[in-house]
Amino acid sequence: MLNVFDGLPDEADCWIYAADRTLSSDEADLLTALFDTFQQDWSSHGRKVAGACVVVDRRIVIVAAHVADGDISGCGIDKSLHLLQEVADSRSFNWASALNIVYKDAAGDIEVVPRRQFKVLAEEGRIDAETRVVDLSIRQLGALRSGGIMRPAGSSWHARLLPSTEPAL
């Protein structure tokens, strides 16, 4: 899955987005095809941006980009975001807020919930330290490569949303 990023260095920027619903195969293919075309002419202040995009589980989109002689500008980032938003608007879905939690439920389905709901699910025992979560805050490809797209909640920042396991006095 991450092999689409093989031509990009670990210091490449990356952004992870989660759709508010599962995309159809056609929608996922369309998004990938449109991004492939887009990235051929992607630039940031006149500098070529090397980029790639992958759709994971028809729910998560990872975009990675690298400018060989500098950093990608906000305008360059916005160009890719505009493309993703156009696809979402044309296909009637939304991108989840970075304030939401993206996780895989017991049935293996990707879910997107507000932090408060994630915490309630944890208190109810429906989510625990082994629940696989997506860290939407990852911003470098190397971090994504080393830890993968899904991590146990207990070994990520999500652990602070889980009930304390300290013994009661």
Descriptive account of the structure:
- The protein is α+β, with helices and mostly antiparallel strands.
- The strands form three sheets. A four-stranded antiparallel β-sheet has the order 7-6-8-9. The protein has a three-stranded antiparallel β-sheet with strand order 1-5-4, covered by helices on one side.
Summary?
The chain has 169 residues and is α+β, with helices and mostly antiparallel strands.
List keywords for this structure.
169 residues; alpha+beta; TATA-Binding Protein; Dna Ligase, domain 1; 2 domains; 3-stranded antiparallel β-sheet; 4 helices
Cα-atom radius of gyration = 17 Å
Amount of helix: 25-40%
Going across the biggest sheet, name each strand in turn.
Answer: 7-6-8-9
Whole-Å distance between the termini? 47 Å
Global structural class: alpha+beta
Q: Under CATH, the topology of the largest domain is which?
A: TATA-Binding Protein
Describe the biggest sheet?
4 strands, antiparallel
Number of helices: 4
What's the average pLDDT? Answer: 92
Order of SSEs, N→C? EHEEEEHEEHEHE
The low-confidence runs, each spanning 5 or more residues with pLDDT under 50, are: none
Assigned CATH architecture of the largest domain: 2-Layer Sandwich
Residue fraction in strands: 15-25%
Shape: globular
What's the multimeric state? single chain
- Number of separate structural domains: 2
Count every beta strand, where a strand is a DSSP E run of 2 or more residues. 9
Report the top-level CATH class of the largest domain.
Alpha Beta
